[in-house]
Q: What sequence folds into this?
């Protein structure tokens, strides 16, 4: 029996209108709770399955191109230090974010709302995140098109279109299909990833020694350079927003219990910040393969992952090196680009639902994200890889650092609520703690990136972004005494609500569908409970509950009930 909260009597002559969602938006087996809390009834995958799916998405070969670009430009010593430093920063900031997303069943956008940005403040970060997904989709698609051109002579312009269309059927079906694709393709990817290095270990055992003294192709030299280190770290830090894609999977982690606590913690650590350990190894490995192939294929082709892969495999596979390398590249790029397209659809859904108060369904935004990515590919953005990523990282790191500062510092200091509140009904439109710190940090760092404060500040602009965000977020929260986190108290989603209460379902008085308690808010306009999505899409309520908290009044009680059956994944 499902517990339903009966709406109180309304003084209005007519009952409030009811909402029915379009077929695609209502089908959670495809929608994957794109704008909502992921309920416990839907989180039916094991910790290892969620972690495996999340890690399957980091099969991308842009790491190879990024690592090669850094080392070719700044030399091995500076490049090596850059890659490791960026990895350490990404790992540390990713730990609290991954844990929050997995614990509360929320994606990166919903966590950002409650972690210092506010309801509308996080629309800007939705755009930042969406741009991450289509920029990297375009990079990965370019790599895949290069492979198809070299393997079968397909023109790269046609290859861009093929790489875009091939992911649509998979992403359309949501998490269930993505989990299967990642699991089925993992063995092929692992063999293709390891084999070139095994071949070179036997055929070119002295190559690693020579690589360690490589001075790059731009005259940087083999010694350490602070300028090169700073600029290289900035390029590598462009990947910091990858934690958002990991979070899109981690929100489906089952609840942590005493029985699964150890496996749960390991899975969250591995699939959350742990991705960057593999990522850093891939950057260094990609730079090494490009270095070995440099003399044979030239600088331009050495930066394209397919050519170094072929050169490494030739001693053992001969003429079969080309098809083997092509298969590996295609599989790798499909694995990552289904994730890029999926995460992009989530981010665009979050953005447009707040701006337009409409939600036709996550799947429609797949086409928007892919159209932008295809346009970037046709514009040959791969040629401007280093500059583009260096600029992007200034904004990305300011966002991630501000969120991490809130989760680690503000919540422990008591300036931020101890849980993540993501619902419009309880949030201010803008919270200056996170939003303000990100805007200030990214603005100053971008000015530094363009040379306004001199060459050293230009090289270390991403460090400026991270440092300012980490300091300003707690400082603003302290100065405002945390008053902009909650527009009104949430009577049932705060501390003290146990798992039995959380999994209780309440029926939304607008769409008349039952949702678990964390997805429900009090609504004075409806005189009853309202789900988070119906609340977001309401364009006529005037935000009465936030402007006059006393008028809202608690109409919900955390009454345990039998959870709804989960949709088929």
A:
């Amino acid at each position: 029996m499902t517990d339903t909260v009966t709406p109180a009597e309304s003084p209005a002559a007519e009952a409030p209108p009811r909402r029915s969602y379009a077929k695609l938006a209502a089908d959670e087996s495809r929608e994957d709770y794109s704008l909502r809390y992921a309920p416990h009834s839907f989180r039916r995958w094991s910790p290892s399955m969620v972690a495996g799916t999340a890690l399957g998405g980091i099969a991308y070969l842009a790491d190879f191109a990024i690592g090669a670009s850094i080392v070719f430009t700044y030399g091995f010593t500076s490049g090596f230090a850059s890659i490791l430093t960026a990895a350490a920063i990404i790992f540390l900031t990713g730990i609290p974010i991954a844990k929050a997303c997995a614990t509360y069943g929320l994606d990166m956008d919903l966590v950002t709302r409650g972690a210092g940005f506010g309801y509308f403040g996080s629309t800007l970060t939705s755009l930042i995140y969406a741009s991450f997904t289509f920029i990297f989709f375009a990079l990965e698609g370019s790599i895949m098109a290069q492979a198809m051109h070299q393997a079968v002579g397909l023109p790269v312009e046609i290859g861009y279109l093929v790489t875009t269309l091939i992911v649509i059927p998979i992403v359309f079906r949501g998490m269930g299909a993505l989990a299967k694709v990642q699991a089925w393709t993992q063995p092929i990817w692992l063999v293709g990833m390891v084999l070139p290095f095994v071949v070179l270990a036997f055929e070119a055992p002295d190559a690693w020694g020579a690589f360690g003294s490589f001075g790059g192709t731009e005259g940087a030299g083999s010694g350490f350079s602070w300028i090169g280190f700073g600029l290289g770290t900035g390029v590598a830090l462009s990947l910091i927003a990858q934690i958002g894609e990991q979070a899109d999977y981690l929100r489906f982690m089952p609840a942590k219990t005493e029985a699964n606590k150890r496996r749960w913690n390991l899975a969250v650590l591995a699939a959350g910040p742990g991705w960057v350990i593999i990522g850093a190894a891939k950057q260094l490995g990609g730079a090494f393969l490009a270095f070995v192939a440099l003399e044979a294929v030239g600088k331009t082709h050495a930066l394209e992952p397919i050519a170094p892969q072929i050169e490494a495999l030739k001693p053992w596979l001969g003429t079969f090196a080309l098809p083997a390398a092509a298969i590996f590249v295609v599989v790798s790029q499909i694995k990552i680009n289904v994730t890029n397209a999926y995460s992009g659809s989530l981010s665009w859904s979050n953005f447009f639902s707040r701006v337009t108060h409409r939600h036709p369904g996550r799947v429609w935004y797949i086409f928007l994200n892919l159209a932008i990515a295809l346009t970037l590919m046709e514009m040959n953005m791969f040629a401007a890889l280093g500059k583009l990523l260096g600029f992007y990282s200034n904004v990305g790191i300011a966002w991630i650092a501000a969120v991490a500062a809130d989760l680690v510092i503000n919540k422990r200091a008591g300036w931020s609520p101890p849980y993540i509140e993501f619902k419009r009904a309880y949030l201010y439109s803008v919270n200056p703690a996170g939003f303000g710190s990100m805007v200030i940090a990214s603005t100053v760092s971008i000015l530094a990136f363009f040379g306004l404060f001199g060459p050293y500040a230009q090289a270390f602009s991403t460090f400026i972004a991270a440092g300012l965000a980490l300091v300003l977020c707690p400082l603003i929260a302290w100065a405002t005494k945390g008053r902009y986190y909650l527009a009104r108290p949430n009577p049932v989603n705060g501390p003290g609500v146990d798992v039995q209460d959380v999994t209780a379902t309440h029926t939304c008085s607008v769409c008349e569908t039952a949702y678990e308690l964390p997805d429900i808010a009090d609504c004075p306009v409806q005189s009853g409970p309202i789900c988070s999505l119906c609340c977001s899409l309401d364009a006529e309520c005037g935000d009465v509950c936030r402007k006059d908290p006393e008028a809202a009044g608690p109409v919900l009680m955390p009454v345990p009930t039998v959870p709804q059956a989960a949709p088929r994944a």
In short: The first strand starts at residue 505 and ends at 507. Confidence is low (pLDDT under 50) at residues 1-15, 494-500, 557-569. The beta strands are 505-507, 514-516, 520-523, 528-531.
